Amino acid sequence: MPQYNPPIRDMQFLLYEVLDAVPTLQGLPAHADIDADTLNAVLVEGGKFAAEVLTPINLPGDAEGCHLDKTTHAVTAPQGFRQAYAHYVEGGWPALSADPAYGGQGLPLVLNQCFYEMLNSANQAWAMYPGLSHGAYEALHAHGTAEQKALYLPRLTSGQWTGTMCLTEPHCGTDLGLLRSKAEPIIGGAADGSWRLTGQKIFISAGEHDLAENIMHLVLARLPDAPAGSKGISLFIVPKFLVNPDGSLGARNGFFCSALEHKMGIHGNATCQIMLDGAVGSLVGQPNKGLAAMFVMMNAARLGVGNQSLGLTEVAYQNAVAYAKDRIQMRALSGPKAPDKAADPIIVHPDVRKMLLTARAYAEGARALLTYTALQLDVLVSTDDADARKDADDLVSLLTPIIKAFVTDNGWTATSACQQVFGGHGYIHEWGMEQFVRDARINMIYEGTNTIQSLDLLGRKVLGDNGAKLKKFGRLIAEFVEEEGTSEAMQEFINPLADLGDKVTKLTTELGMKAFGNADEVGAAAVDYLRVVGHLCFAYFFARMAKVALDKQHSGDAFYTAKLHTARFYFAKLLPETAMLIRTARAGLTPLMAMDEALF
Amino acid sequence: MPQYNPPIRDMQFLLYEVLDAVPTLQGLPAHADIDADTLNAVLVEGGKFAAEVLTPINLPGDAEGCHLDKTTHAVTAPQGFRQAYAHYVEGGWPALSADPAYGGQGLPLVLNQCFYEMLNSANQAWAMYPGLSHGAYEALHAHGTAEQKALYLPRLTSGQWTGTMCLTEPHCGTDLGLLRSKAEPIIGGAADGSWRLTGQKIFISAGEHDLAENIMHLVLARLPDAPAGSKGISLFIVPKFLVNPDGSLGARNGFFCSALEHKMGIHGNATCQIMLDGAVGSLVGQPNKGLAAMFVMMNAARLGVGNQSLGLTEVAYQNAVAYAKDRIQMRALSGPKAPDKAADPIIVHPDVRKMLLTARAYAEGARALLTYTALQLDVLVSTDDADARKDADDLVSLLTPIIKAFVTDNGWTATSACQQVFGGHGYIHEWGMEQFVRDARINMIYEGTNTIQSLDLLGRKVLGDNGAKLKKFGRLIAEFVEEEGTSEAMQEFINPLADLGDKVTKLTTELGMKAFGNADEVGAAAVDYLRVVGHLCFAYFFARMAKVALDKQHSGDAFYTAKLHTARFYFAKLLPETAMLIRTARAGLTPLMAMDEALF
Q: Does the predicted interface ipTM exceed a cut of 0.95?
């Protein structure tokens, strides 16, 4: 069974040594009193919860899956999930970075993101139950009425209730403009002013379960006479049990889980088909503006999905390292390294190291990018400086699709590489590696497929504002290159970073010109382009981490030596993917569209 | 549920139009009378069997899995598997390319390889039951005594009995030199001259089942006082039921299936742990030469594994195309393509096409490479010209690790891309796409991991003979480049092919020099190197296919147009991976080994 050791030192390295998180946070009114001791205490306790409570129920939860009682439509999560959630609620974890006005602890979002990395490493399927609640919380916090907030937010903050997002229908996922669920006004009676919803939703993660006493569904549906397409969609809150004005639970609402999906992975999370059979809901935000309100949840969820793959990459790496040090098989080609044993541990083999270092570098790069972005999110929601807010907003907006797609594609590569380290045992359930791969696969799909992310990046975020956001990020890189340009020791990192920056500028201009001629050129290049920009981000953060490590490499702490070696591995073995990507992006649309549809 | 349409026209294109298989085969004494009609009849009937009998039981077989009765140790395959096998035996399929001396039909191996592609597309888990029998047949045919052949081969040929390979033990898979199973001579009594085997074997595919009345296990074990390591391993045939001299079944032999593995995929195939508890076996080949005898099976099995991923790539592609034409979602960025519908079919989106074409090109490239190699195998086993045999042997030897590793890595990429086309539905069991991905994953691991294949290629097959085999294949490319060098229409294919050929030559020389200094440099570069040479093979065969297609593109048959577009896609979008691979291969050993083991 896989083990998990929370990478707290790595998180501290980023927070305190690379990103100077404490002074940044202290500059925000909400976090003026924050200090490293507080952050450290949460990291340590959160890590314990993840490793001790969630890791042991991950593999059994995958084998057991969720259960639907077809008579009562009740769903039971795997054994231990309910108890772990009770433990989580008792510990006050749902409140960590929630608004103190509703019972939250008001700690920084960047801390919550570190906490969630650990939950995801320990048990992605479990972490999705509370994870979805954050999305519901965010949407209500941003768009709810005062009454809705007072009624729902304290109970989401305490974890007493959980939340979901109900978007997808059988015929539409990406294209929500096609959705058909309907909401009709209720006039008179107890529910006067509310809406009655009918329709079918699918792929509702954590859509029904036995972990909490009530579930708040945030549901997209159409009002009568709403405009067609995406401009006619409204957002509703639809509780599993109706809520009395005093917060006590009323009758069971008119919808039910009609089936659980049989999935490739995340078996411990209940993925529900939900039939809305005249369910009572109240409107959240403005009529027909539901998609915009839902995007508040969606953007947070996209960062959360990147974090899921970071978590899986880290835990897969840790277990593959342990196996590679333990398993003896063959001799090193250059001669025995453990002559006292019958064979050498497989970590002596260069390609085993390549697989391990691929996962390690992808975890470290992703953690840096995610931690940086979460810190920008803290600035965005807490600063009172309008310019700083705009900058943070632009950077988060630019980096969100990169985190969602680049980190989850890398997570697929990394977990599969770690599985390969185990040879045949990697294919067997009891070792846990194949579960990481299966769980990682969904992250490339949900909350907008990675293709959709790439269109968002190239089409909307980059070309949509003539590269302004990208230039903002590019200035950070240029400043760093300028600062470190005279350091001889930094040349090995600065030169490829600067070179890739130039290539991205050139490629962006080229694609912009092409898109001017044919908008489909965006779709032809976007996936390659996103990976190139992802590498630019990673190269930037690896260079920043290398700078800190170079400064401290003679401190006697081998931690910094390891950081340097990982950075060097990244530049030597992973960054060269850009040589391929730039070529395939430039190859453009014709090779994709030349063949008539009928000939496929 | 996935559908399957056997790609017979594609097979015929390769056999008759690209590779001139009929005259090549007719030049071999064993196949002097072969004709296209015979081949076509088998392809059509084989395709029917695959699509009509095996496809319908693939998805249910995955859901059901195999069953072990812990009391009797009997294993039952999923519903329908036994009946399908009976159907297969009745049809005479096991005998297709088997030796007529033992009841075989003596048809070419290349035909059997086309047949197996279809079985693998339809149901990889099922196809492994008869597939393993071929390996046992080959090893006995090459190394058995006259008595062993007479007793066992006719019943393997008829399919009345099946076979397995029992190599792996809990502590050794790659490194068979470590294996511990023992064989002790039986002196006196009924089994005089036989051996009594004890030990534990794991990962025995088709190791126990209810499809056939008897199972021939080919088992590696050590004789008393055998030398340590791989030079002290012998091969035994150990039947499930002892076989009387007249071929009738005797007592149940002393071994049993102690457990079935819970695997990521190929659930329909029983992967057994086998306890040898004094099982009676007879020696196959010379004492202590078992590994060499087993490699006869292994090499055939490696080609078979490449074929499994070809089959999965093809069937995943077909189903993804059907979905992409049917599913409507969003509009093309360049404006509506199906204005009469609420949205466009997703095949209008360039990245969806990229995913489809990736799978299509990987299937077509793999089919060409495999068909060519199987034809060389026919020459190897049937020619009476010693030079032709040596050439064929060299080519098969060179191409085997490439087929095993390159085609299975591509199969993982391709099935995952096809899964992605389905969005969220791709993650759900009932659509069948996630099963293709899970099934494809084992192909990168078993019969020698893909890392082992790459070491075999670079270390043994290429550097081991100073590049002689590689040069032999290079000469075929050089001749083709020379022939087509003056054709203007062929420049787009010939130029990148010739360019890549030059790069491979240069890279090989560089790596040879480096390996001279440190043998571990082979291990550092081998995986990248294998993929570069894999692309060289694909580029060669795509250029050859393009030549035929160019000659016939105005024939009115759009089949040739599609071939041309696929080749162009390959050169534009897949071949550029070599730009990355050559860089990472050159980056060498240091970035992998610099970090101390303790710092991982």
A: yes
